[in-house]
Amino acid sequence: MWSAVPDAAGTAAALLLEAAVGYPDALHRRIPHPVVAIGRAIDALARRWNHGSDADRQQRGVATVALIAGGAATVGVVATRILPRPMVPVVATLGLAQRSLFLHVHDVQRALARDDLAAARIAVARIVGRDTSNLDESGVAAAALESLAESFCDGIVAPAFWFWLGGLAGLFAYKVVNTADSMIGHREEPWRKFGWAAARSDDAMNWIPARIAGALLAIAGRGGFGTMLRDARKHASPNAGWPEAAMAGALQVQLGGPATYDGVTVERPSFGNGRKPDAADLARGLRVTAGACVLLCVGVGLLALAGARKCRR
Fold first, then answer.
1. How many CA atoms lie within 13 A of 158 on its CB side?
2. Are the C-beta atoms of residues 140 and 124 closer than 8 Å to each other?
3. DSSP codes, the chain
4. With bands split at pLDDT 50, 70 and 90, how would you rate the model's confidence at 4?
5. Residue 32 above 50 pLDDT?
6. What is the pTM of this model?
7. What is the pLDDT of residues 82-110, one digit of tens each?
8. C-alpha–C-alpha distance, residues 146 and 101, integer Å
């Protein structure tokens, strides 16, 4: 594993490279993103093991996360040992999602800006799990902003944190846990027991990054700390409320509230005391998130400089 200096420098390099290039379409057409392979492995084990008693399901769910995350971490260790050092941040870009996140949310914002609500609903459906067919402009904008805030944590801050802390092994293990949580970490049957380990592991691995993400959004938005500290714990998730409440406070809008999933309306807490968001607020949210990404990169870069100075002494 690298020393502290290249960990921080490598993380900053990975963030910059992924923001500039992302996962190129030409490459994607030839080689599916590694998360696709992770998803297929999780799906295969879920089909095979998610049956029997509650105890059996829970134990097999633990085994699923342990096997795939352990395998991914092993791949990360081997890759770090055999790759030239400059290639490690390049590989790490596979675990980051700055560029794709901004492109997807920007698609929603552009559709709203030209008053094409139908296109905006289609675009936002690509990044949220709720029903979007009946959303009005503020509903689409709110859904996109909530996804933007939460994805800033689990698609950018958390992967960067685990790469900085644990190299490729930490990054790959995190991506497995986060993907497993999105696929099987549900409270509804038949996932309640089988997905328990995925959900709890994701909660643990996102605990620190979620609070960092919320702070960065609040700083970049020049506000939002009060709303974040007041409202973050309202969320059913121990982590998602931090960046979402920070975004609501930074933009002075209201996020959260009731949402419909598979035809069933779910009552959710609201974040912030402001008005309902619109297309202009979504554009502002993109700028706030871009600023938070810059702050993240600068912060990691300062860690690298501090480590380099310490090594020279």
1. 29
2. yes
3. ---HHHHHHHHHHHHHHHHHH-S-HHHHHHS--HHHHHHHHHHHHHHHHS-S-HHHHHHHHHHHHHHHHHHHHHHHHHHHHHS-TTHHHHHHGGG--HHHHHHHHHHHHHHHHTT-HHHHHHHHHTT--S--TT--HHHHHHHHHHHHHHHHIIIIIHHHHHHHHHHHHHHHHHHHHHHHHHHH--SSTTTTTTTHHHHHHHHHHHHHHHHHHHHHHHHHTT--HHHHHHHGGGSSSTTTHHHHHHHHHHHTB-EE--EEETTEEE---EE-SSB---HHHHHHHHHHHHHHHHHHHHHHHHHHHHHHHHHH-
4. very low
5. yes
6. 0.94
7. 999 999 999 999 999 999 999 999 999 99
8. 12
Mean of pLDDT over the chain: 93
Q: Quickly tell me which residue has 């121990």 as its tokens.
A: 238
User: What would the two tokens of residue 34 be?
Assistant: 């590694």
Residue with tokens 């309902």: 276
As for how many domains the chain has, the answer is 1
Phi first, then psi, for residue 261 (nearest 5°) are -125, 120
Distance CA 92, CA 17 (A): 10
Q: What is the pLDDT of residue 307?
A: 75
How many other CB atoms are there within 10 angstroms of residue 176's CB atom? Answer: 27
What single letter denotes the amino acid at residue 97? A
Domain of residue 92, residue span? 4-312
What residues contact 25, with CB distance under 8 A and at least 6 apart?
Answer: none
Q: The tokens of 264 are what?
A: 């069933």
Q: Are strands 255-256 and 264-266 parallel, antiparallel or unpaired?
A: unpaired
Give 34's strand partners.
none
Residue 268 burial (C-beta neighbours within 10 Å; 0-12, 13-18, 19+) = middle
For 127, other C-beta atoms within 10 Å of its C-beta total 20
